[in-house]
């Protein structure tokens, strides 16, 4: 148990370091268009929350390992084309479940209890993705384990999902748009979320509640009215249009 705990701790530390490294590299890209102003170094609270997220995610991983040993979670080690099917299924299921959870987290009675803490920080640092209330980290981890227990998935699809989740999370919390405008104008990015989408959520928290796609926001009409114009480069975000003032904080 202790050996597994140390292994999973190392895994989650590497995920944190990979996210920060990826985010730092993206911020240095010459072609990345800034959406929000650079707010400098991270606050100490962000660092403590990120450290707490690593510890809690280690516990979630350990719990998943125990559930796998008990046969509650079943993993497929085969390398077939079903890996792509499993990965797509995981992305759509988690995207919908996270959308619902995110919408609930923004309900007036629930928002002050947890999610408000994440919105305290301006979106312009790689570490912001990990600056979450401990309750949110545990809730997302429990949701993840519940999905894995519902049906057998390819272990390689799990690895792929972890990478995709990290990339989307980091890109959405940098305050920059690294994707060329000609890409963002394609039909593909009309469905797949761009970094602009989550940045706009932090500017208007009632909108853009999805993570990987725009499907649920379009279906439930929570997509920001200006998102498609901003995505395609036909409009600026309010932060830039108002001389790049810091993103507003919720009270």
Automatic annotation (TrEMBL):
Regions that span the bilayer: 6-27, 47-69, 81-105, 126-147, 153-176
Compartments where located: Membrane
Gene Ontology MF terms: iron ion binding; oxidoreductase activity
GO CC term, one of those recorded: membrane
Keywords linked to the UniProt accession: Membrane, Transmembrane, Transmembrane helix
Domain Fatty acid hydroxylase: 88-222
Gene Ontology BP, a term: lipid biosynthetic process
Chief place of localization: membrane
Domain of life: Bacteria
Official protein name in the record: Fatty acid hydroxylase domain-containing protein
């Amino acid at each position: 148990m202790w050996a597994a705990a140390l292994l999973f701790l190392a895994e989650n530390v590497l995920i944190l370091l990979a996210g920060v490294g990826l985010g730092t590299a993206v911020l240095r890209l010459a072609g990345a268009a800034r959406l929000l102003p650079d707010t400098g170094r991270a606050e100490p609270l962000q660092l403590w929350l990120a450290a707490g997220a690593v510890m809690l995610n280690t516990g979630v991983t350990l719990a998943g390992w125990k559930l796998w040993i008990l046969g509650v979670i079943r993993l497929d080690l085969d390398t077939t084309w079903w890996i792509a099917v499993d990965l797509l299924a995981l992305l759509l299921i988690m995207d919908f479940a996270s959308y619902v959870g995110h919408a609930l987290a923004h309900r007036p009675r629930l928002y002050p209890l947890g999610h408000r803490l994440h919105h305290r920080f301006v979106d312009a640092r790689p570490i912001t993705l990990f600056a979450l209330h401990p309750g949110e980290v545990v809730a997302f981890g429990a949701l993840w384990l519940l999905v894995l227990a519902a049906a057998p998935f390819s272990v390689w699809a799990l690895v792929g999902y972890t990478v995709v989740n990290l990339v989307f999370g980091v890109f959405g919390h940098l305050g920059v748009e690294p994707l060329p405008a000609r890409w963002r104008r394609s039909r593909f990015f009309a469905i797949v979320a761009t970094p602009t989408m989550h940045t706009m959520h932090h500017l208007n928290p009632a909108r853009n509640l999805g993570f990987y796609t725009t499907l649920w926001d379009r279906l439930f009409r929570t997509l920001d009215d200006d998102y498609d114009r901003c995505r395609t480069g036909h409009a600026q975000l309010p932060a830039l249009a108002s001389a790049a003032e810091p993103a507003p904080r919720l009270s």
